[in-house]
């Protein structure tokens, strides 16, 4: 009878320890789940800062190369450029880096996609129109919406092989490049228009002298 009591107490002790360990493990797991949410929130916040930095640099660059900057006095332009350069310098002091965990296959896909985009960019000066069309087909390959134009199927399969975060970065880079091309094209057209207007004015003045 005494032996039975001792055995029962031993089993009860083992049960208490097992129950306590399970509770402790559950609490630790819950804490880690909460921390995981905070880690993902941190990465999202850092990514948002990265994107904001890119947008600010693009806006500063766009102002410096705008048509309005060409239509003010040299002194005003110099002063505004100094301010823009100061803002750009301060923006560049913000260093944020969100590393993406990639498999070897994803790493290769990213390198391949980057190389294709770099090759198109290198041809900007040779043929801006063709480069824009090529970039549009690459961008359509990254879009989840029904594209308005042709889709580069080969590039699409490469991008699908990239990590999700890299897919988003590739799409953002293409968007930025397309905006830069559009702004450059507008600047060229405005410059050609102003040259044409100036030439017409000179011609009219010359004809007025002879008349």
From TrEMBL:
One of its GO terms (biological process) is positive regulation of proteasomal protein catabolic process. Residues 109-189 form the BAG domain. The keyword Disulfide bond does not apply. It comes from the Eukaryota. One of its GO terms (molecular function) is protein-folding chaperone binding. The keyword Coiled coil applies. It comes from Capra hircus. This is BAG family molecular chaperone regulator 2. InterPro entries: BAG2, BAG_domain. Co-chaperone for HSP70 and HSC70 chaperone proteins. Acts as a nucleotide-exchange factor (NEF) promoting the release of ADP from the HSP70 and HSC70 proteins thereby triggering client/substrate protein release. GO terms for cellular component: axon; dendritic microtubule; protein folding chaperone complex. Binds to the ATPase domain of HSP/HSC70 chaperones. May interact with NWD1. Interacts with HSPA1A (via NBD), HSPA1B (via NBD) and HSPA8. May interact with DNJC9; the interaction seems to be histone-dependent. Residues 25-59, 164-194 form a coiled coil. Keywords: Acetylation, Chaperone, Coiled coil, Phosphoprotein.
């Amino acid at each position: 009878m005494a032996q039975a009591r001792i055995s029962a107490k031993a089993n009860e002790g083992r049960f208490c320890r097992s129950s306590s360990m399970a509770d402790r493990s559950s609490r630790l797991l819950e804490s880690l789940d909460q921390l995981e949410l905070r880690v993902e929130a941190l990465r999202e916040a850092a990514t948002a800062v990265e994107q904001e930095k890119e947008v600010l640099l693009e806006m500063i660059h766009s102002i410096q190369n705008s048509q309005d900057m060409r239509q003010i006095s040299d002194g005003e332009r110099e002063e505004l450029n100094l301010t823009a350069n100061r803002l750009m310098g301060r923006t560049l002091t913000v260093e944020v880096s969100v590393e993406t965990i990639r498999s070897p296959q994803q790493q290769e896909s990213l390198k391949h996609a980057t190389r294709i985009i770099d090759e198109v960019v290198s041809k900007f000066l040779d043929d801006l129109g063709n480069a824009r069309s090529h970039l549009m087909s690459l961008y359509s390959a990254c879009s989840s919406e029904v594209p308005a134009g042709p889709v580069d199927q080969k590039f699409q399969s490469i991008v699908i092989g990239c990590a999700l975060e890299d897919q988003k970065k590739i799409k953002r880079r293409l968007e930025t490049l397309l905006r830069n091309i559009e702004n450059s094209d507008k600047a060229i057209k405005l410059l050609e228009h102003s040259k044409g207007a100036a030439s017409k004015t000179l011609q009219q003045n010359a004809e007025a002298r002879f008349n």
